[in-house]
Amino acid sequence: MTSFSDIKAALVAIGNDMKTALASSGGGGTSIAQVRNTDTSTNINGASWGDRPVNGITDFMDADFSLGTNGIICNFSGRVKATAHIGYTTIGARVSVNVGIAVAGVDQPVKGKSGYVRAASGHNEATGTAQQYITVLSGDEVTLRTFGEAVGTATVMDNGGCILLLERQ
Fold first, then answer.
1. Which fold has domain 4-168?
2. CA–CA distance from 158 to each of 3, 85, 86, 89, 163 (Å)?
3. What is the spatial distance between Cα 123 and Cα 121, in angstroms, rounded to a whole number?
4. Which helix (H) or strand (E) holds 99?
5. By Cβ atoms counted within 10 A, which residue in 16, 20, 118, 130 is the most buried?
6. What share of the chain is helix, strand, coil (3-state, %, to 5)?
């Protein structure tokens, strides 16, 4: 079984490989931004969709982007491939946290609904991912949002395990 730490390291390595490949090819016209969380106390299993702070660690921040209040600000208008990934831990049974993407506070249609925690026999971690192409205006902040499908027990993000990645297209 692959550990969450191994998955996180692989995602960072993929991002590093992409950045190196782009730099060696003259840039290729694509720029990226990737941020991860340091917050491990905010309950992401809420009864309504809410922005989650994933801007504690900046892995990449090309000039087309800047760090926002909770996510990434786009310094251009155009199309972006957005990926939001959460890794979380809880002691509660049957917790299921959904993940989504918002642009300037407006929820986008694609949601990640694959996370589920049984909280039995040591199963108390899960992940979820949402990915889609979005259109942004200069100054728009793109954020990662979560919603508790099985609200009840407090659920927190794993340190560095929640990622918001934007790729300008």
1. Jelly Rolls (2.60.120)
2. 12, 11, 8, 6, 11
3. 6
4. strand 97-103
5. 130
6. 10, 45, 45
Burial state string for 12-31 with b = 16 or more CB within 10 A and e = fewer than 16:
beebeebbeebeeeeeeeeb
Sequence spans of domains, the chain: 4-168
Contact 168, 78 (CB under 8 A): yes
Number of residues assigned to the chain: 169
Q: List beta partners, residue 40.
A: none
Q: Reduced to 3 states, what is the DSSP secondary structure of residue 116?
A: coil
**pLDDT digit string (tens) for the chain, length 169 residues:** 566 666 666 656 666 565 555 544 445 568 999 999 999 888 888 889 999 988 899 999 999 999 999 999 999 999 999 999 999 988 888 888 999 999 999 999 999 987 778 777 778 888 999 999 999 999 999 999 999 887 778 888 888 889 999 999 9
Hey, what are 26's tokens?
Answer: 């003259």
140, 91 in Cβ contact below 8 A? no
